[in-house]
Amino acid sequence: MTALEIVGLVAIILISCLCVVGIVILVPLVKLINRAKSLVSNVNSNLIPIIEKLNTTISNMNTEISSIVDITQSASSIIQQLEKIVRLARLLVTSPLVKIISTVAGIIEGVKKVASEKEEGSKNESSTG
Q: In the predicted model, what is the mean pLDDT of the chain?
């Protein structure tokens, strides 16, 4: 055997060893890639219904929120109408009430004045008489 044959034989043995090591490393790596691919496809198939349910839930929430906004606006409108009614009732009740009270107070003062004038007149007549 010549030196060239020995070098060739060593090279073939080294290349064979590298191929065996590569195969030993590649087989689990291919299995891992296949598992990752199936996991991604499972996640994808499970994720789509979840996202659709989430979309439906958000749509329902938006509908509920818009109805709450409508109710709030209606309540605000009702409160504004009530404020106007209370203001009008206050004007309708207090204005005549103030006039009646002032008229009665004026009548009472007039009666008191007339009564005091009568008393003074009767006192003056009795002192002059």
A: 88
